[in-house]
Amino acid sequence: TLVGGDVVLLYASKYHDISTVVNISGRFDLKKGIEERLGKDFMERVQKDGFIDVRNK
């Protein structure tokens, strides 16, 4: 059974009426900000590459 984000990705790959899929997860420790987790240059990387490849540190 597909649930949550899986359904969204499947729909977006099958029907091309969605141009952008944004993954928002509440599983992270939100005491830290985006910059602390993704780096100071995260917006530049998004603009350059179109995405951020998040890996475990």
TrEMBL record:
Protein name in the entry: Uncharacterized protein
Species the sequence originates in: Nymphaea colorata (pocket water lily)
Domain of life of the organism encoding this protein: Eukaryota
InterPro entries per record: AB_hydrolase_fold (IPR029058)
Gene3D superfamilies associated with the record: alpha/beta hydrolase
